[in-house]
């Protein structure tokens, strides 16, 4: 992907596709891979393209360099304090664009797996929390440090509060301390902790397992998971039951169940 390079010549975001897995790599290591205007645009464009790409069955989100993502580009944002409205319109726009991109991850038909090495801070931590799964190197750390600089991490809070128990989320938000990968796993922010440098390989392994499943079934399941999570218990069961009826009538469920009974590998619809 060569769009949205900004003033630099290298693309802000790289993409490679292998065996149904699209790997996206944040490619601004010299500036700690911030969610700048260019990076947000590149990510949004990539997710839009992937959503309609039937050849992609899972997505891995990684980063170049020693930092996964440092969050918003504070220099870019602070420059707009000189605007007539002290930056209100710009801040509203950029935060809206960031929130929309995070929601693209949730609504994407394919599961998205973060591969984290180094640090993921503020909106970078939000990015990890927004992914469906996450693998982290043993030296990775996570932090929502806005409280230290008078800017509470309110938008990262949305994703954190939907991944972590309330007291864990508030601990990160109120203390702003670095959380080591093993502790992040205990809290529920990441799924796997692997030796440093192996997060990408583990994320791609998980993606490969997902890619071997029925893409239609994975799409149904991911969508239903996020839909039911916002409902009350009774409504969630009603919704999940209705989804399962439609799933049961789908071609891949018939094929999968038949293959199981026949003791043969299933052949999924592409």
From TrEMBL:
InterPro entries: ClpP/crotonase-like_dom_sf (IPR029045), Enoyl-CoA_hydra/iso (IPR001753), Enoyl-CoA_hydra_C (IPR014748), Mitochondrial_ECH-domain (IPR052377)
Protein's GO biological process: fatty acid metabolic process
Record Pfam families: ECH_1 (PF00378)
Keywords, in A-Z order: Fatty acid metabolism, Lipid metabolism, Transit peptide
Source species, domain of life: Bacteria
Keyword Transit peptide in record: yes
Family per similarity comment: Belongs to the enoyl-CoA hydratase/isomerase family.
Role played: May play a role in fatty acid biosynthesis and insulin sensitivity.
PANTHER family named among the record's database cross-references: ENOYL-COA HYDRATASE DOMAIN-CONTAINING PROTEIN 3, MITOCHONDRIAL, PTHR43602
Protein name in the entry: Enoyl-CoA hydratase domain-containing protein 3, mitochondrial
Species this chain originates from: Bosea vaviloviae
């Amino acid at each position: 992907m060569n769009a949205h390079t900004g003033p630099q010549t290298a693309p802000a975001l790289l993409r490679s596709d292998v065996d149904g897995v699209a790997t996206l790599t944040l490619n601004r290591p010299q500036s700690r891979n911030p969610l700048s205007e260019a990076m947000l645009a590149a990510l949004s464009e990539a997710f839009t393209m992937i959503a309609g790409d039937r050849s992609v069955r899972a997505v891995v989100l990684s980063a170049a360099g020693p930092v996964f993502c440092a969050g918003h580009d504070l220099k870019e944002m602070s420059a707009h304090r000189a605007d007539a409205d002290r930056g209100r319109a710009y801040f509203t726009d950029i935060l809206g664009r960031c929130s929309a991109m995070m929601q693209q991850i949730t609504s994407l038909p394919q599961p998205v797996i973060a591969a984290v090495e180094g640090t993921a801070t503020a909106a970078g931590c939000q990015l990890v929390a927004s992914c469906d799964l996450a693998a982290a190197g043993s030296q990775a750390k996570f932090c929502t440090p806005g409280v230290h600089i008078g800017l509470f991490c309110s938008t990262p809070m949305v994703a954190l509060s939907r991944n972590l128990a309330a007291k864990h989320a508030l601990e990160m938000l109120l203390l702003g301390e670095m959380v080591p990968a093993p502790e992040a796993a205990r809290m529920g922010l990441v799924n796997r902790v692997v030796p440093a440098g192996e997060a990408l390989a583990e994320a791609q392994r998980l993606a490969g397992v997902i890619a071997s499943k029925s893409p239609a079934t994975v799409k149904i399941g991911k969508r239903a998971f996020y839909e039911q999570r916002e409902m009350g218990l009774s409504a969630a069961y009603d919704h999940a039951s209705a989804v399962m009826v439609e799933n049961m009538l789908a071609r891949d469920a018939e094929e999968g169940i038949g293959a199981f009974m026949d003791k043969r590998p299933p052949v999924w619809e592409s």
